[in-house]
Amino acid sequence: KQLLLFKHNGLNCLNTSDDGCTKRIPEFFKYAVETRYEFDSVAAIKDNYSYSCEGDRGFVANPDFYHINNFVTKIIGPSIDAAKTINERSFLEKRISECERITKFNANIVSVDFWQQGDLLEVAQEINKVRAKSLRRRSLRKYIYDWFH
Q1: What does the pLDDT read at residue 4?
Q2: For residue 90, with 0-12 CB atoms within 10 Å meaning exposed, 13-18 middle and 19 or more buried, which class applies?
Q3: SS3 content of the chain, % helix, strand, coil (to 5)
Q4: Are 82 and 71 in contact (CB under 8 A)?
Q5: Residue 54 CA to chain centroid, in angstroms?
């Protein structure tokens, strides 16, 4: 097993050598791009995927990680009612596929509120299985090609 660490929302260590900054834990936004994170309703996410999926913070040009924020943040905080809708399989699958189609990035990270509500774990596991199978097939094809050429 491996653990990958990034620093997020701390000291800005990208262009400084201030105390507290370390090269051992890199800045998240140096390697990743994330979608917008301030949505006041489910409709704000669903009705305009071009807006809700576009990169808002981070390395937008060619990121190693694409982080989809999939939650509603109202003035008083997270909404469990919204989570019951947007954490459902159909909503997650549509949002992830639309964001990947629009941005041409594979989603690596999906942030939600109330992960216990809905189908996030199952959807993420299914996507990971499909991607792993695809990588194995590509690796096998490359091995066969290299063997004969």
Answers
A1: 81
A2: exposed
A3: 45, 15, 40
A4: yes
A5: 12
Q: Which pair of tokens denotes residue 109?
A: 């990270």
Query: How far apart, in whole angstroms, are the C-alpha atoms of residue 114 and residue 120?
Result: 10
Which residues of the chain, if any, have pLDDT below 50? none
Give residue-wise pLDDT tens across range 91-115: 999 999 999 999 999 999 999 999 9
The predicted structure's pLDDT at residue 17: 56
Nearest by Cα to 71 from 133, 114, 15 = 114
Q: Which amino acid is at 35?
A: T
Report the sign of the C-alpha dihedral through residues 99, 101, 104, 107, in that order: positive
Instruction: Give this prediction's pTM.
Output: 0.81
- Using N-to-C axis directions, what is the helix angle for 120-148 and 89-103, rounded to 10°? 40
